[in-house]
Structure formats: C-alpha cells, structure tokens
Write a structure and sequence with these properties.
The chain has 12 helices and 6 strands. By secondary structure, the protein is mostly helical.
Length: 358
C-alpha cells in the first residue's frame, strides 16, 4: 500500500476535536430499551450463575491494565497518509462502539437499581469496563492530534429503540465478536511483532477478556428467559441478528482492507475466521447458527461489496443528486436481494431448548 505524502485532513468541531463520522447503516449505533420490562425479568432460573458472573465483575481483573506506558510517549507523525487515516477511522469506530455500550449499560444500571439490584450492579460494572475502553481509545486518538467530544456524541447521535430480547441478541453477539476480533489480532501480532505498528494492540489480550465476560452475562440472561430462545420466532430473530452482525463486520472490514494489510492480515481471511468462531460460540446459547461454511454465504457478501463500490463512485461523481438516486437504486435493490437470500439460507439447528437451562 502506498501512502499519500500529505497528512489526511479531518473536519473538526473545534481545534483537535474531530467531527464524528457520518451515521450510516454500517456505523456503530446507540441503543435504548424498555427499562421497566428489563426490571421485571425473572432471573431465578439462572441466579447462581449470574451471581458468579457478578463476582467476576467485582474482582475487576483489568483495573490496572488500561494504563499508557512509555511506548506511547513518542511522536506518531511517521504514521502518515492513508495509514494515518485508517488508524484514525479504526480508533474512532472502536471508541464509538465502546462508548455506546457504556451509555446503555450505565442507564440500565441506574434505572434497575431499586427494582433488580443484581442486574443493576452487573450493568453498572460493565459500564465501568466500557468507559475504560472508550477512554483508552479516545486517548489513543490524541496521539494523532484528534479526540472525540463524547458529550457531543451523546447528544447528537440518534438512539435506536430495541426491546430487551433484541438488546440481548445484539449485545451478546457484539461482545462475543469483539472477543474474537481482539484475540485474533493479538495472537497474530504476538507471532509477527514487526507488524505491531502502534502499542494499543499489546492491550488486546486482557481487553478481550472483558468482552468475553460481558458476553457470558448476556448468555446467562438469555438462558434464564427461555421465551427468548425456545420458539420459532426466536430462531428467526437469531438468524437475523447473526446475519446483521456478520454482514456489517465483513462489509466494513473489506472496505478497510488496507488497515488490516498494515497489520499483516488479509481482511477477508481474518473476518472469515472471526465469523466462524463467533458462529460456533453463539451455538452454545442460540438454537440455530448460520451455515457460514457454504460458499454462497461469502459469494453474496462479495456482491454487496461490489455494489457498495459502485454506490461510492456514484456518490463521489458530479452527477446531480436527483439523478444519483436512480443510478444507485439497482445497487440498493441488489443489496436487499442478497441479504434476503442470505437470510433464507437454511441455518444449522443446534438444539431444542424446550425450556431447559444448559
């Protein structure tokens, strides 16, 4: 990859404060939910496991981990051009995703405090972890002379309402896929230290354990609510969220393949491995998983990637906006068709829960 000779120029709210990336269907989202319904949930079928998870949260294994060391104390101007832009995009997306989790978990902890103390404390301690992650990432952005105004982000972002069961599906998968993303990069760079061009990746091993513990919490919560997993509607929703999470990651990462190339990774092979492991992990709680070994799965995602390339070219052209819509329409329709065909692919049945707790 050849970098441009100039440093990329980022739009700023004020000096050093980056304008947040434009919200799209592929950007990290902020969520809210029905707090009263969450508070009424019966956790007794899995209360002992949830108490054990709470003790792990209280132990706070990473309380001394997210501390910048001497390796950060240097100029990072040698990371320039396209590489610098890709790093800023990676740090911003990661910071925004972690901050989104912080806001949701913090609000759940506050709203549930008097109604369901055990759940409230779990959410509060997970918000602590997410705050550390987002703060660490935002500080890393400052090495590139930028930061995010997280207060501005809180007020300016649109919030998506999800019912509690959808929050569980989405956040469980988000935490588990985060684990596999971080640990895969960490293990790769442990074997190839020459590609670890920035010190944040040294922190990924402990970091991903936070993600894993959070995922285990949502796993235990879903198994305490068999209505979330045991009927035909649950299977349809599990398919939808698995596909949404996997497709979003694949389309985003292939679009930013140069970032992974800097780390010595092939974006497609990296994503296929992460998807395979996350799909396998999801099978421990979801009643179905996707057939990601079928070539059709990635063939259809590749069609979406080609469509998105065309959409970007149209968007960057001098064609009047009202005409661009008609130029883009066939590609939007094609993407929708690919997603529908992916959704209708026969899933892999894992087990029938029948109200039991595994």
């Amino acid at each position: 990859m050849v970098d441009s000779l100039k440093k990329p120029v980022f739009e700023e709210l004020r000096p050093g404060i980056k304008v947040p990336a434009k919200e799209t269907i592929l950007t990290p989202r902020f969520y809210t939910t029905d707090f009263d319904e969450m508070a009424r949930m019966d956790i007794s079928p899995n209360e002992d496991e949830l108490k054990a998870i709470l003790e792990e949260f209280r132990a706070d294994y990473n309380r001394h981990h997210f501390v910048r060391d001497a390796e950060f104390e240097q100029s990072w101007d040698h990371i320039d051009g396209d590489t610098r832009r890709l790093f800023v995009e990676f740090l911003e997306r990661s910071c925004t995703a972690e901050f989104s989790g912080f806001l949701l978990y913090k609000e759940l902890g506050r709203r549930l405090k008097d109604k369901n103390p055990l759940l409230a404390e779990c959410f509060t301690l997970m918000s602590r972890d997410e705050a550390r992650h987002s703060g660490f990432l935002n500080k890393a952005l400052s090495d590139f002379n930028l930061t995010l105004d997280l207060g501005f982000l809180t007020k300016s972002r649109k919030y998506t309402f999800f019912k509690p069961k959808f929050i569980f599906y989405a956040t469980y998968l988000s935490e588990k896929i985060g684990y596999w993303r971080y640990i895969t990069i960490y293990r790769h760079l442990e074997s190839h230290p020459e590609n670890r061009v920035y010190p944040i990746f040294r922190f990924f091993e402990n970091w991903c354990q936070d993600e894993n513990r959070h995922g285990d919490f949502f796993d235990a919560m879903m198994r305490a609510q068999p209505q979330f997993l045991g009927d035909w509607k649950a299977k349809l929703w599990c398919r939808f969220f698995l596909l949404s999470v996997f497709a979003t990651m694949y389309l985003n990462d292939v679009q930013r393949a140069d970032f992974y190339q800097v780390l010595g990774l092939d974006a497609r092979e990296y994503d296929k491995y992460v998807i395979e492991k996350t799909n396998e992990t999801a099978g421990r709680v979801f009643p179905i998983v996707l057939d990601v070994d079928k070539p059709e799965f990635y063939d259809r995602l590749e069609v979406c990637i080609r469509n998105n390339t065309q959409l970007t070219e149209i968007n960057n052209s001098n064609t009047p906006k009202f005409l661009q819509f008609f130029q883009k329409l066939p590609y939007y329709v094609s993407n929708g068709w690919q997603f529908l065909r992916l959704y209708l692919m026969k899933p892999v049945e894992v087990t029938s829960l029948e109200g039991s707790v595994r």
